[in-house]
Amino acid sequence: MVIDLGEVREAPVGDDRPPPWTPRQRRAVRVVAALVVALLAAGAAPVRPALVMLDIPAAIGDRFVVSDSTDSVYLLSPSLDALGQGEREIVKYRLPAGQEAWRTRVATAGPLRTAVSEGGILYALAEAYAPETIAFDADTGKVLWRRAGWLGDTSAEQVFLSHDPRDDGTSLFMALDPRTGVERWSLEVPREEMVLYNRDRIVRWRGDGAVEVRDRRTGGLVIRGQVPPPVINPLADSNPGVQLVGGLLLVAGPPERVVTTAYDLDRLQPVWQAEIDLMNEYVTDECASGTLCVGGDGPGMRVIARATGRTRWVSDRWSWMWRVGSALLAFGTESEPMRVAVIDPADGHEIADLGRWSTRPAAINPAGRMYAARTDPGTGRSWIAELDPVARSIHVLGAVPDSFACEAGQLVVTCTRTGGAVAVWYPRRKLDE
Question: Which CATH class name applies to 64-189?
């Protein structure tokens, strides 16, 4: 039997004293208590907690990585605080019991700043003067390959690396085979040129407006052309005034006029112009289908049509938006934890308030749900919940003590504990699947 005590609107933070109950609430509690007593008397099974905790010893500065698709986590040690050459250790733990699957040590020129687990491979980035990407077999911990370069996007088809700058004054961009590290194609450009890429296209941009578009999968040339470049002061402007988003190349207009021109990538023909300050604003295609989101350093965002550049609606309440299935999530302008809401992509109208949580797009699982956390600095407790944007619901899994700096992944939530240990909070229902 499931006893529904009502929808959880928001987990308490700070003051844990319950509000005064009304007579109606007191009567409801007495009824629920009577039901619980009856169940216990009938020999009902005890209620198990919604979360299982796994405590992993770690030191302050160690890096913790949650796997993408398998029930496992990785600990990189020593990591952030260990500069210079030395040996780094990576340990894989299986969930939910926390058995050590493998432990491997690797010598690097710098600390392991980050790592990504995808498609049965763990990619780690060792940051130094010459950055290096190292690929490990996720099942055994064996080093598959190591190449100079910054780790970029990873996929089942290829891994994207960049090496900039190099001693000869050039930048190198490479697509590698994920399992062998064999180079599939590479692009070498002068250091003053810029390379942008998205899902399936790479753009080589020169300051005078010369453009070269290539297929990201093969590296093959799609088109070359010339577009009017933005007028910038290289000594004052670090922003080049060019962005690649949603299959469009966006180029800032003259400094005396706030305007951006969008070019079709495969034809390099202008599609539309809009009042976008590309020197101070960013554009993403992560909001509703057929639209682009425009934001800046200050609060507020606006949604424009991807096909025409026309503004559909504007709101000063959100700092970021993200599409989750058929729902559009909006994140507030406050500092962490931000308010999370489901909004109508057509007009920005708020549909459901999911409360204040720390979460991120990487926490969205294939089912469209996402884990979230929020720490109460006054008590050292962290609330952990599962958000369902499509169903517009919140399921608070519980509160865990002595924790902070929680990070939500697709499978688990990790929190740092006093002394640097890492706690992994695993939803109980995963054990029953």
Answer: mainly beta
